[in-house]
Design goal:
Length: 486
């Protein structure tokens, strides 16, 4: 049997395994499918965080931290923003280009996942794991977001691969790059620690310390002197921030929504691989089988205790689910071989074809609405609101955005507004009798119910103006143009 049982210990990791031409073709086809499924999202409507990142990039380009959302330059590590800044110098401001950066690093992650799975489980499982990653609904969408997750996962996988190959210094360098991409890289340190505890040795303890020390040393300058995310990250976990309250869900939300992230068929296959790993790692005492299990545990267990639970946090665990999927498909293939090699190959091919068709025709918007309907719909309504205002407000002109202290305007609406429309920020207490604010930014002051989505009237910071104000009119005020309800 190909895979781990051919290997006597993990020292053989990284040794060359010859890949045949059909296997190269399968991997190439998987990579092509992976890229095409994500490129179809390049022109999707911006979500809230993506729109905010566009304004952060603008502030970085202008060299003005005081610009709108400019302080966001210091809320997340810098590597992704620097890459977007470099592409801006070549292509100008381009949402598809920014998203293509994420897709490129996600494609790189697929190739690194192939190397990890090939080292541990052999070529067949590696190829099937890569296909599962390509077909994951959550990965299809979030790999093309203007966010740091894709580049963070890319460097995390490189660090993990090098750690498994006992190249601890370079593993630490990759961990440092991941920490300079997004704070979520700290989950890798937890994963490595749990993996070490399954079979502790002094040699690997030394390697673990070297890896974590180098990663921490590389990223220390950012987190110690420039980052403003430490307190907000903790408050989001502890539930003291209003964002944490808005994203608060039951402790099991990530687990119970796994069928949405993976799809029903792929989840069923991944669970076969999951329990096979559980059985083999406990019965055969082979630590390699436990890697996907401790990987998923290192991510999901801390997230279960987090007060805020945004659905995109699962991205760092998706490669582990893909490995489980690859092991599950391999298990089914081996069982079907009892009926003949031809039957096994045909059955496996039909399963792969089914997963590919589901990923192709089950659009990413459907996944988004299943995972969090309001998050997508408010993006859509905000763009519709901007289009409505673009056709209604005399241009050049000014719109009023009433603000409460510390709040910020809706970046989605501002992004889609015409350049000739100026948005003026007015303190919340200046609302005049008979006037309906264009945007109420903070439900704490507006009296609306807490939460992002579908307020009773107009109260939250993502108010879908198009939905609520079609019956209104635009009137000139001392501050500019203002929407008035009839």
């Amino acid at each position: 049997m190909e895979g781990i049982k051919q290997r006597k210990d993990s020292d053989s990791l990284g040794k060359k395994i010859r890949v045949s031409t059909p296997e190269i073709l399968f991997l190439t086809g998987t990579l092509l499918l992976f890229i095409l499924l994500r490129l179809r999202n390049l022109n999707n409507v911006l979500n809230y965080d993506e729109a905010k990142f566009v304004f952060i990039i603008r502030a970085l380009v202008s060299g003005s931290p005081g610009a709108l959302y400019g302080e966001g330059m210091f809320y997340h590590p810098p590597i992704y923003l620097i890459l977007c800044r470099l592409t801006h110098g070549v292509f100008g401001e381009s949402v598809p280009v920014y998203r293509s950066i994420s897709v490129a690093f996600s494609a790189g992650s697929l190739l690194i996942l192939f190397k990890i799975a090939k080292d541990l489980y052999g070529k067949r499982v590696a190829l099937l794991s890569c296909f599962c990653l390509a077909a994951l609904p959550a990965s299809n969408l979030m790999d093309a977001w203007i966010k740091m997750d894709s580049i963070c996962v890319f460097f995390m996988l490189i660090s993990l691969m090098l750690f498994l190959r006992k190249s601890y210094i370079w593993s630490g360098v990759a961990l440092g790059a991941s920490l300079l991409s997004k704070e979520n890289a700290v989950f890798l340190a937890l994963l490595l620690g749990l993996y070490f505890l399954l079979k502790p040795t002094w040699k690997e303890l030394k390697g673990l310390v070297i890896t974590i020390f180098i990663g921490a040393l590389m990223s220390f300058w950012w987190y110690a002197f420039l980052s403003k995310s430490g307190e907000s990250y903790f408050s989001f976990f502890a539930g003291s921030s209003y964002e944490a309250k808005a994203w608060h869900y039951p402790w099991h939300i990530y687990i119970s929504n796994s069928w949405k992230d993976l799809g029903v068929l792929l989840l069923a296959i991944a669970l076969i691989g999951f329990f096979q790993n559980l059985y083999k790692s406990s019965r055969l005492r082979r630590r390699e089988y436990a890697l996907p299990l401790v990987w998923i545990a290192a991510v999901y267990l801390p997230l279960c205790f987090s007060h805020g639970k945004p659905f995109w946090m699962v991205t760092i665990a998706l490669p582990a689910w893909a490995i489980c999927g690859g092991l599950g498909l391999d298990f089914l293939y081996q069982r079907l071989q009892a009926y003949g090699e031809k039957v096994a190959v045909i059955a496996l091919s039909l399963i792969i074809l089914s997963l590919a068709l589901i990923s192709t025709f089950n659009g990413d918007i459907e996944y988004m609405r299943e995972r969090d309907e309001g998050y997508y719909d408010n993006s859509l309504y905000s763009r519709q609101a901007a289009n409505y205002l673009n056709g209604t407000v005399p241009q050049p002109g000014t719109l009023i955005s009433y603000m409460s202290p510390g709040s910020m305007p809706n970046p989605i609406l501002l992004y889609y507004l015409n350049a000739d429309i100026h948005v003026e920020l007015i303190p919340f207490e200046h609302i005049e009798a008979g006037q309906v604010p264009l945007l109420i930014q903070d439900w704490r002051d507006s009296g609306a119910k807490a939460g992002f989505f579908y307020p009773d009237f107009y109260g939250d910071w993502l108010t879908p103006l198009y939905h609520y104000y079609l019956g209104g009119r635009v009137e000139r005020t001392p501050y500019g143009y203002l929407l008035i309800m009839e």
